[in-house]
Specification:
12 helices; TIM Barrel; Lyase, Ornithine Decarboxylase, Chain A, domain 1; nine-stranded mixed sheet; 2 domains; 24% strand; alpha/beta
Length: 402
């Protein structure tokens, strides 16, 4: 198995397992495909950097022409360090303090507000600073409830039913609402969900003459297995562009259309390599215990997410049924009852679609080290994060003597 002519097993031999590998060409292809799917006068794509926030990945998106969607002050600082201009960053946090908002304001980035209390704070404290407002459309959409964020019980956004209150705050403080934002969830297959949300949100845009852009978030479904379902981005782009252009023409507005894809951009560009520590036969199943766990890739345990797994050390072996599990002292099953070619001790297994919300959700649970990351760009492998050491585990701890 190769990426841009580089053998994955050679990379594992050089950097050892577990190891994250990213295909820069695939990221570039994903970005270009997304941009080309839309036909609107002004399109801005802000990469949702929480999906994969390594500074080298951010620099690649900067080179491609993307902006940045950030949800913490730390992500903002990463983006600035990667070379993004403040005006190309939109800060869309949730339930943060006034102090963190103040830090973001001081850095000059775009501000998105998702609750009325903080909107009042902005009106009173920063009356001259334009702000975007995040609306909760009360629509259930997403692969499962944990990644559905636009429903009535969600903590995200200002309820669409609180629009009169929102308008009173804006009017009282004479605020400049420069954008309207909505994000309904992730892994959305039906593009009609976006169209419905668009029609609802564009009615909100009608309430504010100062709006310059409309941000429809992301949530596009990617395929996690061969032949799996995925959002047809070309079809979606055509339909959505038509809806958006018709609105702008009807209202005589010259609005910027924004999206903030994360998973769509990096999911299928990422691979995670692990080594088989043990093959364990029990009366119920055959386990393959690997040198990783939920500390490195928690999506299967947290979201019941599916990742295709292959044995790249023995690709022509006889197929058998295995459950692939980790070395963490918890139930950390990566995949149950999977067909893999025969797995032997020290074989290398690879997890596909490991680019989004994999390393970025990793931890030091069980005091394990987080793995290195490698980016393959223009046919060359670049180490973009070193493997952690015991010094990293102890770095911020303060030892006292008893």
């Amino acid at each position: 198995m190769e990426i841009q002519g580089i053998k994955i097993l050679d990379l594992v031999q050089q950097y050892k397992a577990p190891l994250y590998i990213y295909d820069g060409q695939q990221i570039t292809n994903n970005y270009n495909r997304f941009v080309q799917a839309f036909d609107v006068p002004q399109l801005k794509v802000n990469y949702a950097c929480k999906a994969l926030s390594n500074i080298s990945i951010l620099k690649l998106f900067k080179q491609l022409g993307a902006g940045l969607d950030c949800v913490s002050i730390q992500e903002i600082k990463l983006g600035l360090a990667a070379g993004f201009d403040p005006e190309d960053i939109l800060f869309t946090p949730n339930n943060i303090s006034e102090e963190e908002y103040a830090d973001a304001v001081s850095l000059g980035v775009g501000i998105n507000v998702d609750n009325l209390e903080m909107l009042e704070y902005f009106g009173a404290t920063y009356p001259d600073i334009p702000v975007c407002v995040r609306i909760n459309p009360h629509m259930m959409a997403g692969g499962n409830r944990k990644i559905s964020v636009g429903h009535i019980g969600s903590k995200f956004g200002i309820s669409i039913h609180q629009l009169p209150h929102l308008e009173r705050i804006v009017s009282s403080f004479n605020m400049n609402i420069n954008g309207v934002h909505v994000h309904t969830g992730s892994d959305i297959l039906d593009s009609e969900i976006f169209i419905k949300a668009a029609k609802l949100i564009l009615e909100v845009v009608d309430r504010f003459d100062t709006v310059k852009f409309v941000d429809f978030g992301s949530g596009f479904k990617v395929a996690y297995k061969e032949g799996g379902l995925a959002t047809d981005i070309e079809e979606f782009g055509k339909e959505f562009s038509s809806t958006f252009n018709a609105y702008c023409k009807d209202r005589g507005k010259d609005l910027i259309l924004k999206f903030e894809p994360g998973k769509y951009m990096v999911s299928n560009a990422g691979y995670f390599c692990v080594k088989a520590n043990v093959v364990k036969q029990t009366p119920a199943t055959t386990f393959v215990g690997v040198d990783s766990g939920q500390n490195h890739l928690i999506r299967p345990m947290f979201y019941d997410a599916y990742h295709e797994i292959k044995n790249i050390s023995n690709p022509s072996g006889k197929k058998k049924i295995y459950s692939i599990v980790g070395y963490i002292c918890e139930t950390d099953t990566f995949g149950a009852d999977r067909q893999l070619t025969q797995v032997r001790k020290d074989d290398i297994l690879i997890f596909k679609n490991a680019g989004a919300y994999c390393f970025s959700m990793s931890s030091n649970y069980n005091s394990r080290y987080r793995p290195p990351e490698v980016l393959i760009h223009e046919g060359k492998a670049h180490l973009i994060r070193t493997r952690e050491t015991q010094e990293d585990i102890l770095k911020n701890q303060i030892e006292i003597e008893f």
